[in-house]
Fold these 2 entries.
Entry 1:
Amino acid sequence: MNDQPTKRDRARTLAQVERDADGCRRCDLYKHATQTVFGAGPVGAKLMLVGEQPGDQEDKAGEPFVGPAGTLLREALVEAGIPIAAVYLTNAVKHFKWKPAGKRRLHERPNREEILACRLWFDDEVRLVKPGAIIALGATAASVVLGSGPKVLRDRGKLFPSPLAPIVTLTVHPSSILRAPDAAARATARRLFVRDLAAIAKRQFPGR
Ligand code: URA
């Protein structure tokens, strides 16, 4: 895939890119999703958070991180001293991938082709939002933001040189905290997650 933006590409606004993404047919995920869930937040955001893909509730609402993982994430941002209004929230993949389980829609991990097909929307978001820092949440986002080298549990909280933003790092996905086996494990995982976010808050939002 040629990823060099043309002059016309460079002139597009985020709103125009979002409209284009609404009609995305670059892979088959649109067929079973309600809608494209594009990123949300201000241009010039000091921080961009990248998740994997919208979940069941995000798919219905058309907004990223509004379900249970989003609630945990938003609470953790407050605890870490990060103003949500200064954050651009997005996902590596913009359509919900799921399989039926009775009446429920069960999350399925996007595959390599689906992740690759969606990449251009993320690149446009980064180019137009120009975030001061990017945090990849979980392995799928890390693969898009940082490539295949970094591993979430080994490298969480480390800073990586990147052309995408002055500060680029990764941590766990909030849904992994929700999946922790018991309350004690959940509390520990949540504390470490807030710690990772707070380390970036210190750089990006000093004095808060
Ligand atoms: N999980 C994600 O990765 N993104 C969302 O928007 C919601 C849940």
Entry 2:
Amino acid sequence: MQVTFASTNQNKYREVQSILSAHGVAVDFAQVELIEIQSDSLEEIAKEKTKSAFAKVGRPVIVEDDGLFIDALNGFPGQYSSHAFKTLGNDGVLKLLAGFNNRSASFRSLIAFHDGKRLSISEGRIDGSISDTITEGGWGYDPIFIPAGFDLTFAELKEKKNEYSHRKKALEKFAQWYLK
Ligand code: IMP
């Protein structure tokens, strides 16, 4: 089975490829800029994104929409995670959390598939907390996210991240559906 992952994010592609290939789904990469609608719903964003990806790529395609939801900030940055990362960065997020005892957070990933006819959405979530300091390595919020049950951030967990991540859970569901 073959599918195309449409994104501008090479880091995501590397993870998607490693996870899906382990489930017998081959993935190639279409590095395309996709318009994201403004919405409070990750699901709506993912649906529209996968339709526009299929229109551009012209073959069965998956896109991902994801975000980091911090409880003490009422879910911020959530669907604005990409923008918040560019503007505030990890340093800015840690500053926003200064003074809060509750550092719990979750990552959510929605994988949306479209082949011109079928549209499927698969969701994955991982709970955890925000670290006190920025650790080395990783990408995006990896250096400040500690998954529940670990003392290390996603950045420090390196390849092991792919065994537990929100992305892994969403892709596993997608693969089960796709291979059926
Ligand atoms: P989008 O789905 O491309 O809009 O991305 C949401 C943002 O969340 C990304 O730009 C990253 O900053 C962040 N993000 C999503 N998944 C991860 C992850 O696995 N590790 C670190 N940051 C992530």
